[in-house]
Amino acid sequence: MTAQALAERTGIRTPRIRAFVEDGAGGPVHPTEQELAELAEALGLPLPEVLQAAQVPAPA
């Protein structure tokens, strides 16, 4: 899936998605928890694993 396609599915701007992909969790642009949830849903990934990979504490 391209960054553009993912942006269309989630409503997250394409440049932000590209920054997340290119720089990872240690990059200067950090996704919000809402963005992570949207990305996890769009990609069919478990949210707790996405939060862990992004170094964000999972909600209790």
Structure report:
- The structure is a single chain.
- The protein has 60 residues and is mostly helical.
- The chain has one domain (3-53).
- Helices cover 60% and strands 0% of the residues.
- It contains 4 helices and no strands.
- The protein has helices at residues 3-10, 14-23, 33-43, 47-53.
- The mean pLDDT is 89.
- This is Helix-turn-helix domain-containing protein.
- It comes from Streptomyces albidochromogenes.
Topology:
Layout: H1 3-10, H2 14-23, H3 33-43, H4 47-53
Helix pairs in contact: 1-2
Gist of the model:
With 60 residues, the protein is mainly alpha-helical. The chain contains four helices and no strands. The protein has one domain (3-53).
Structural class: mainly alpha
Strand tally is 0
Distance between the termini: 31 Å
Strand fraction equals: under 5%
The string of secondary-structure elements, in order, is HHHH
Indicate the radius of gyration in whole angstroms: 11 Å
InterPro entries: Cro/C1-type_HTH, Lambda_DNA-bd_dom_sf
Organism: Streptomyces albidochromogenes
Protein name: Helix-turn-helix domain-containing protein
Q: Keyphrases for this structure?
A:
60% helix; single chain; globular; Cro/C1-type_HTH; mainly alpha; 4 helices; 60 residues
